[in-house]
From TrEMBL:
Residues 23-122, 130-229, 234-334 form the SRCR domain. It comes from Sinocyclocheilus anshuiensis. Keywords: Disulfide bond, Repeat, Signal. Pfam families: SRCR. This is SRCR domain-containing protein. SUPFAM superfamilies: SRCR-like. PANTHER family: SCAVENGER RECEPTOR DOMAIN-CONTAINING, SOLUBLE SCAVENGER RECEPTOR CYSTEINE-RICH DOMAIN-CONTAINING PROTEIN SSC5D. Disulfide bonds join C92-C102, C154-C218, C167-C228, C198-C208, C259-C323, C272-C333, C303-C313.
C-alpha cells in the first residue's frame, strides 16, 4: 500500500515561533504568487504539497499581506526548489496568522522537489503587471515590472501561450502576432531573460511560472513585441435597425468590414449577444446590406458560441487577398425592435 504522504512521514507536531522567521514565494514573477519557501537556520527550503490545500495557502497569503488565497498549486507548479524540504503535511485550519503556527506531519526531510507547494494570492495590486509600449493600447513592446521598474522581455523567453495571457490581462482580445527582433523599437530598460511558462489559461502574466534555471542570452535586438486583436467596438450598419446590417468593427481606431469567408453562425451569435440583440437568425452576404468601404478585417473568429463578446473568441489570420467588399458579411439578429437613431 502506498504511503499517505509520499514525501515521507515523521510525526505530527508544531514548530516554535523561533524555528523560522521568514517566508517567501518564488518563481511566480510576483511577491504574491510562487513556490512557498521558508527560512530555517539560515537556509531556504520548500514545502511538500502532500495534503497542501487552500487553508494552508490562506495562511501564507495572510502572513505575506497578499489578500486571500486563490489557488494552492501542487507538484512544483512554480518549478522545483533546492535544499531541504522543511515542511510536509501542513495542517492549517486557516485562522492562523503565520505558517509557523500550523501543525505539520514532518519537518526537515531530504527528498526530490517534484512535489514543491505553491500559492497564488488575490492581491491584484501585485498580480497585475504588464504593458505594451511603442504601439497602441493593444500593441507594442512587452514590458513587465521587476525590482520596482519596467523591464522588456527577451523574445526567446516568450511564446504564444504567454501572448494569450498578456492580451487577456489587458482586455485586448486574442493575440494576432508575436513579433521578435525589436519590432516596436528597443527598450531602454533592463531585460527579463527567464523563461516564462504560461499555459495560456491564466488571467495574469505574473502568476505564470518562470524558470530561473533557464535564462537566455539576449540583447536589445531581442525585445519581444505583441499585436493583440484589440478591437474596442462593433456595429451593424445599413440595416433597418441596430440589430441587423453589415458587420463593421473598429480595429486600432479604424472602422472596417468583415469578410464573409471568416464569419459563421457561432460568431454571429456572439455578436448579437454583445449588442443585446438576442440570438443570430441569419448570416448574409453583401447583397443584403450593400458593400462597405475602407479596411476589410479578414480575421477568422473561432467562437464556440457561448462567449459574451467577440473579444473573448480566439482569432486566426486569413489572407487579405481572399476578400473584397463584395464579400462583406451581414448579420440578422432576433431582436429587430430597436430602431436605429436617425
Amino acid at each position: 500500500m502506498s504511503p499517505l504522504f509520499p514525501c515521507k512521514i515523521s510525526y505530527f507536531f508544531s514548530v516554535s515561533h523561533s524555528t523560522f522567521t521568514k517566508l517567501r514565494l518564488i518563481g511566480g514573477n510576483s511577491n504574491c504568487a510562487g513556490r512557498v519557501e521558508v527560512l530555517h537556520d539560515g537556509q531556504w527550503g520548500t514545502v511538500c504539497s502532500d495534503d497542501w490545500d487552500l487553508l494552508d495557502a490562506a495562511v501564507v497569503c495572510k502572513e505575506l499581506g497578499c489578500g486571500e488565497a486563490v489557488s494552492a498549486p501542487k507538484s512544483a507548479y512554480f518549478g522545483e526548489g533546492t535544499g531541504e524540504i522543511w515542511i510536509t503535511g501542513a495542517r492549517c485550519i486557516g485562522s492562523e496568522s503565520t505558517l509557523m503556527n500550523c501543525g505539520f506531519i514532518a519537518w526537515g526531510i531530504k527528498d526530490n522537489h517534484t512535489k514543491d507547494a505553491g500559492v497564488i494570492c488575490s492581491d491584484l495590486s501585485f498580480l497585475k503587471g504588464v504593458r505594451l509600449v511603442g504601439g497602441s493600447r493593444c500593441s507594442g513592446r512587452v514590458e513587465v515590472p521587476h525590482d520596482q521598474t519596467w523591464v522588456s522581455v527577451c523574445d526567446a523567453a516568450f511564446d504564444q501561450q504567454d501572448a494569450e495571457v498578456v492580451c487577456r490581462e489587458l482586455d485586448c482580445g486574442a493575440p494576432v502576432q508575436v513579433l521578435g527582433a525589436a519590432a516596436f523599437g528597443r527598450g531602454d530598460t533592463q531585460m527579463w531573460t527567464q523563461d516564462i511558462q504560461c499555459t495560456g489559461k491564466e488571467s495574469y502574466i505574473s502568476v505564470c511560472p518562470t524558470s530561473s534555471s533557464l535564462k537566455h542570452n539576449c540583447t536589445r535586438e531581442n525585445d519581444i513585441g505583441l499585436l493583440c486583436s484589440g478591437y474596442t467596438e462593433i456595429q451593424l450598419m445599413n440595416g433597418l435597425d441596430i440589430c441587423s446590417g453589415r458587420v463593421e468593427r473598429q480595429y486600432f481606431s479604424k472602422w472596417g468590414t468583415v469578410c464573409d469567408a471568416c464569419w459563421d453562425m457561432r460568431a454571429a451569435s456572439v455578436l448579437c449577444r454583445q449588442l443585446n440583440c438576442g440570438i443570430a437568425v441569419s448570416v448574409v452576404g453583401s447583397d443584403w446590406f450593400g458593400e462597405g468601404s475602407g479596411e476589410i478585417w479578414a480575421d477568422v473568429f473561432d467562437c464556440d458560441g457561448n462567449e459574451t463578446k467577440l473579444s473573448e473568441c480566439s482569432i486566426s489570420s486569413w489572407s487579405r487577398a481572399e476578400c473584397s467588399h463584395r464579400r462583406d458579411a451581414g448579420v440578422i439578429c432576433s431582436n429587430l425592435s430597436v430602431v436605429r437613431d436617425q
